[in-house]
Write a structure and sequence with these properties.
With 327 residues, the chain is of the alpha/beta class. The chain has 9 helices and 14 strands. Helix 4 runs parallel beside helix 5, helix 5 runs antiparallel to helix 9 and helix 7 crosses helix 9.
Length: 327
Amino acid sequence: MSAKFRWGILGAGNIARKFVTGVQALADHEVVAVGSRTQVTADKFADDFGIPHRHASYAALAADPEVDAIYVATPHPMHKENTLTCLAGGKAVLCEKPFTINAVEAAEIIAAARQHNLFLMEAMWTRFIPLISEVRRLVADGAIGEVRMISADFGYRTGFNPASRAFDPVLGGGALLDVGIYPLSLASMLLGTPDRIAGLAELGQTGVDEQSAFVLGYPGGQLAVLSTAVRTNTPHDAVIMGTDGMIRIHPPFWIPKTMTLKGAGKKAQVIEIPYTANGYNYEAAEVVDCVRAGKLESTVMPLDESLALMQTMDAIRAQWGLKYPME
């Protein structure tokens, strides 16, 4: 492996641009290649970021010997196929969230990574933001006692366009997979996997969830009260409630800089922990640290948890009767 860790980017959309911007803030990383469906889009993306290798197919990117790991930045219905291509090319993979369309696909790419003995991680960037790392430490140290309830939301209002990523079932549209993964992942990080689920959704004219709310129950009696939307703006708040206090992560909770810690009988304390660059740099750094250490997955975002999250989203959608055309 070269002195600098060499990234390839699969896909040339908005999220790929954000990730490259984050990577370019890291001294020991470099983006050396991009793959797109056409040479024109690959060249345009590469020109914008000064990337030397430009590929007109994802297979060509996966075969590039100059690349150490690939960031999969395509829409989620393509994640399974794209990740399998990269793993077959011998590349470590950071795959955008949600990991796949459903748990069956997630299990398939996890099995492939383990078969090829290659690193794989879901790109849940929030997990690696410094303030969220401090939340994990505070909870583990008992700063608010035992966590009993979590509330969190991620909803936004976008204009209706049946052909857009937010509304087209062929693209895995709807709020749950797009942004509902954020509150779900927060609850999973702190409470694990639920054993009870109750949810309601408003399915729009294209058949996907335009807004929803769900309650997750856990074996120890804990609850997570979560909501998500693509047609409704929500506060973007998260509150972790324990037996001896609470933590409020100030919005937007998925890329936060401040939180309020209130211990039992103590004065509320505002804690500020800024992040550097645009925040995507932290998940990139985790991948490199793991790969250089010879690890095949991250302990912060492990593969079995990514699979469990997909299973939870499958169960939520089953209650609504929402199936995608490719399922």
